[in-house]
Please model this.
Amino acid sequence: MQERVQKFLSEQGVASRRKAEEFIKSGQVSINGRKAKLGDKVDPEKDEVKVYGKIVQRSEQKIYIALNKPKGVVVSKYDPNGRKTVFSLLPEELRAKVHNVGRLDYDTEGLLILTNDGDLTQELSHPKYEHDKEYEVITDAEPKPTQLEKLRDGIELPTGMTSPAKIKVRSGKVYITVHEGKKRQVRRMFNAIGLGVRNLKRVRIGKLKLPDIAVGEYVELSREDIL
Ligand code: URA
Model:
């Protein structure tokens, strides 16, 4: 059965669908030796697809991984500055097959999903589905009730207003739930109300809680654990 080349690439874990489109647009993808265009179709059974000159091997099985990301590693397949990546925490046979769903900052820890299921990536990444993302925040000063109210109402950032956030405080830590994924959003929201973030950890995406595993470890899941 034929499918669009960008879908095929994301299913094989080469990159997210959006990133795969960038590879195609910049001429790095070929189908049977011919440069691919956006929307070109491939038959995974017959066609030879290459990215950066390397053949994309077909993998049938869908893989779902929850990783407890440590601080000090970058969420990217390759880092031009040579920093350690989250992919280096996976065994080689998994590393090549999966891509990350969304990102966490270099200094953020916690739940990161990796998969070769392009449809799941689309659904979790698309703002219209509004999947919750919950973070545990340790601030550098005790938050005042008026500051927390501002987070609940939504914060004006240079990139626009954030949606109202759900806020809980437990044992001195703030738990904030948002469903958007603006760059450095949580840090910027806290900075906007005058609080520095000492530690930021993602503890939930939708119904999936950060599994009880050590920092730097991962577990394999099924699709039903996530959506
Ligand atoms: N918000 C941030 O500021 N950083 C992250 O890594 C995730 C959400």
